[in-house]
């Protein structure tokens, strides 16, 4: 029984000692922003294919008062799907539209 326990601990130690492959750190490859009293816009992109852009405009009229935001973001999901979400956020709330594609259907 003692030999089986020692063998089990040795096997467990061997499994835990194996190194996981390291991923390269994600870097920002593009970044831009502009802010003023009437609104803002920004965008960024990272080395792993993630990106986001957004534009916000301050509205002060009879139809809407407050911020009206339009934007999009995209990323590659763990299963390899390319996800892109485009959205509007205004007096009607947050309104996203999602699109999923595989790498082979990207052109």
UniProtKB/TrEMBL annotation:
Instruction: For the region Disordered, give the residue spans.
Output: 43-64
Report keywords, A-Z: Cuticle, Signal
- Pfam families given in the database record: Chitin_bind_4 (PF00379)
Q: Point out the signal peptide segment.
A: 1-17
Q: Which GO terms describe its cellular component?
A: chitin-based extracellular matrix
Q: Which InterPro entries match?
A: CHIT_BIND_RR_consensus, Cuticle_Struct_Prot, Insect_cuticle
One term of GO molecular function? structural constituent of chitin-based larval cuticle
> Protein name, please?
Endocuticle structural glycoprotein ABD-5-like
> What organism is listed for this UniProt entry?
Papilio xuthus (Asian swallowtail butterfly)
């Amino acid at each position: 029984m003692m030999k089986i326990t020692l063998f089990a601990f040795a096997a467990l130690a061997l499994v835990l000692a194996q190194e996981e492959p390291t991923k390269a750190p994600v870097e920002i490859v593009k970044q831009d922003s502009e802010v003023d009293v009437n609104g803002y816009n920004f965008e960024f992109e990272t080395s792993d294919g993630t990106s986001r852009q957004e534009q916000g405009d301050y509205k002060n009229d009879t139809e809407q008062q407050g911020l009206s935001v339009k934007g999009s973001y995209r990323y590659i999901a763990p299963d390899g799907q390319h996800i892109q979400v485009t959205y509007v956020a205004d007096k009607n709330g947050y309104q996203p539209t999602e699109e999923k594609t595989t790498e082979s259907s990207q052109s």
